[in-house]
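@channel anyone free to eyeball this complex?
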Amino acid sequence: MPSPSQALELENFLPYRLSILAQIVSESLHDLYAEPFGLTVTQWRVMAALGRFAPLTASDVGQRIVMDKVAVSRAVAGLMERGLVERATDRADRRRASLRLSARGRAMHARIVPIALGYEERLYKVLSAEERRSFDALTDRLFAHAGTLRQAGARTSRSALLDSEPPARSRS
Amino acid sequence: MPSPSQALELENFLPYRLSILAQIVSESLHDLYAEPFGLTVTQWRVMAALGRFAPLTASDVGQRIVMDKVAVSRAVAGLMERGLVERATDRADRRRASLRLSARGRAMHARIVPIALGYEERLYKVLSAEERRSFDALTDRLFAHAGTLRQAGARTSRSALLDSEPPARSRS
DNA sequence: CTGAATTAGTTTCAAATGTAACTATTATGC
DNA sequence: GCATAATAGTTACATTTGAAACTAATTCAG
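replying in thread with the prediction:
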């Protein structure tokens, strides 16, 4: 078996494959909540982050969902306009503001979660339970490894996601 | 084991995981070719498609790399300006134009391919050969299944990718 | 304390992207 | 053949997105 890799076979090229798989999945899911709830993908992710991890600052949200602070700021602005998110300025440090879902936001969140989980469930149906675990484990490792590869010579190094631990507050 | 899924754990939610994994991989790769070659992600994908599948029309390219014709048109315009791609109008059907890499384009392509494959190789190093095959097979199935799920109630149904067969020319 | 440096978050401006309209060419129905 | 429809591709406009500048508040050095 000579030269194992000389030609770039796009259809077998991992970055490309991941990209289109992620894209079709993300769009499919968006199709389910966009119209009934009027949320963009980023807005939904902010809501999901707040729904899961109680009060968070905008920066915390950004670290959670791998989104820069500008994107978070805009998504939050839109959500606050619609009364889905509440902001409370931190009295000790008035630069910060902790965010949480409002009652309306929680209600909407509660309606979307089953839709999202239902889609995931349908998608996963094509895999056996074991395959599913295997796939999760493999993506975890790929993700961690991709992060370390990126360190070597990258400007932005914001990583540490796929992680259920909070990102370690800078101050105690 | 009661209610197997009630809360949405973002960090374990497949669409989210796929999305950020694809994002970090795509960005890491882009870091490698963006600066030296001055290509956007879409331009590089067009070049990759042309590099692999000889002469293609703009529509063919779009089907190959899952990109709408406007995006292809713009990427091609940029590539032609730089003399990386050549266009030849089809004499039989003057709406069509077949695209191919120019000599310069082929030279650049030849320099980028090893970089791309090298990145893929480094990324895959975290998996054993068997895990790698397994991961590929699982993504294939997820992809195919995601496509069928999307059919049911989707406006755009452009699928059929991850496939090395050409997308069946409309005319013989 | 006072001034430089940090940090949280927003706003501004430019580039990228998507949708819809448009041009040019070919196919189809009658 | 001729009007209508369909197809390939581009252009125009409106929205989204990202990078950098900016505001406000806090920390840190001396």
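from a first look: Residues 14-148 of chain B form a domain with the Arc Repressor Mutant, subunit A fold (CATH 1.10.10.10).
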